[in-house]
Amino acid sequence: FLEGEEWKRLEDVANKIYKDYTHRLKQEFPTLTELDIQFCILLKFQFTISQIAAITAVSSSSVSVQKNRLKKRLLQADEHLFDSGQTLDMYLWTY
């Protein structure tokens, strides 16, 4: 699983490829935690629940719970964010 400096490198890659991805997320959704940001990065790179579980050293069910928490945090900032039927994954892929 990934640790400190590896997460920083992954964040740097996401910011380079996706034009300041984490900075934009933090600005638009200030309630996101560092764990949420890491999770957003993994979802942006289209890792599966199983892959995220392996990378973060948690169970697949814990990843599903984290996805639900993340979606709720995003909805706190914009309650209509998913009104168009878009999933959390789809939203982050296009963000």
Key descriptive features of the protein:
single chain; 95 residues; mainly alpha; globular
Question: What is the topological layout?
Answer:
Layout lengths: L3 H14 L3 H8 L5 H11 L4 H8 L3 H18 L10 H7 L1
How would you characterize this protein structure?
This protein starts with a helix and ends with a helix. 69% of the residues lie in helices and 0% in strands. It has 95 residues and is mainly alpha-helical. It is globular, with a radius of gyration of 13 Å. It is built from 6 helices and no strands. Helix 4 crosses helix 5.
Overall shape: globular
**How many distinct beta strands?**
0
**Which regions have little confidence, pLDDT < 50, spanning 5+ residues?**
none
What distance separates the N and C termini?
25 Å
Cα Rg: 13 Å
Count of separate DSSP helical elements = 6
Helix/sheet category: mainly alpha
Strand and helix order: HHHHHH
Largest sheet composition? none
What share of residues is helical? Answer: 55-70%
Oligomer: single chain
Strand content: under 5%
Mean pLDDT: 94
